[in-house]
Design a protein that fits this description.
- Helix content is 49%, strand content 0%.
- With 308 residues, it is mostly helical.
- The longest helix is centred in the last third of the chain and has 32 residues.
Length: 308
């Protein structure tokens, strides 16, 4: 029944009434907690509840949580449901594979044995690279698995083994997907020109994670600054005092001037570029304001006047 506000009011005296409970859990999934033991073991009632919210599975019977056919149906819909499966089914290859294929992060609820199963982990990281966090140490050191993961999300290089953080093929894939992944590369590869160039091409701000030697490499700094003028702040002091580099930075983003050397902050050519960029931005902002004002004026018109 519903109150005068249209809110379903659960009647606990009908906790063993299947028709009533089907309606109840459709509107308030947490009502399953108050269902009779028989109905918390009823496939129809429980599935109706988990359609509303998968966390309703917490209140299902242990028998249903260990029912392979039922749980296959559930994890096929929401892989996260593996969290509530019985320990036996969290170690079942069919169940876990179905779950991680739907939601790779479900690997976190799989048994250690399944987290060490290469086929399972490959399926998980292909769906969601973040799943690498839950792979076994052995598979975090498996090049096939880690490459598949970083192709999906470069930042999961964080969870790769130290050996693979020093593998050029792996790190190139990672920084190509997300330049910031350079922060997780080995010190050796942070000093690798190919790696750092790939990273800053993806995100100029990745320059901050490069070695001091490469932060002083003019061609790399120019590439980074061309992608994001703010990367000037990560260049070496020498390059922040290099006129070519600073001009490139302020041409891309005039605010980068604050990271230039004091000498170049006062350079007439640099200041001219900054003033030019500011004028362009002011014109753009003014144009936007004019457009907004025009739209506001149009909105004040009486629709009946249009076409008169």
């Amino acid at each position: 029944m519903q109150n005068t506000f249209g809110v379903f009011m659960f009647d606990k005296t009908r906790a063993n009434d299947k028709d009533y409970m089907l309606k109840a859990v459709s509107q308030q999934w947490w009502a399953l907690e108050d269902a009779s033991p028989e109905l918390r073991n009823d496939r129809d009632v429980v599935f109706r509840a988990v359609i509303s919210d998968i966390d309703a599975l917490e209140f299902a019977s242990d028998e249903l949580k260990n029912d392979k056919d039922f749980m296959l149906k559930v994890v096929n819909r929401v892989g996260y449901a593996l969290k509530y499966a019985s320990p036996e089914l969290q170690n079942d290859r069919d169940i876990v594979l179905k779950a991680v294929s739907q939601n790779g992060y479900a690997l976190g609820y799989a048994s250690p044995e399944m987290q060490n199963n290469k086929d399972i982990v490959l399926a998980a990281v292909e769906n969601d690279g973040d799943a690498l966090e839950y792979a076994s140490e052995e598979l975090q050191n498996d090049k096939d698995v880690v490459i598949k993961a970083v192709e999906n999300n470069g930042m999961v290089l964080e969870f790769a083994s130290d050996e693979l953080k020093n593998d050029k093929d792996v790190v190139l894939k990672a920084v190509g997907e997300n330049g910031y992944a350079l922060m997780f590369a080995s010190a050796e590869l942070k000093n690798d020109r190919d790696i750092v160039l790939k990273a800053v091409e993806n995100d100029g701000m990745a320059l901050q994670f490069a070695s001091d030697i490469l932060k002083n490499d003019k061609s790399i700094a120019l590439k980074a600054i061309g992608q994001n003028g703010y990367a000037l702040g990560s260049a070496s002091p020498e390059l922040r005092n290099d006129k070519d580099v600073v001009l490139k930075a302020v041409s891309q983003c005039w605010c980068a001037l604050e990271d230039a050397s004091p000498e170049l902050q006062n350079d007439e050519d640099v200041k001219a570029v900054v003033e030019s960029q500011k004028a362009v931005m002011a014109h753009i902002m003014e144009s936007h304001e004019d457009f907004d004002d025009a739209g506001s004026d149009l909105g004040d018109d009486d629709p009946g006047d249009i076409g008169d």
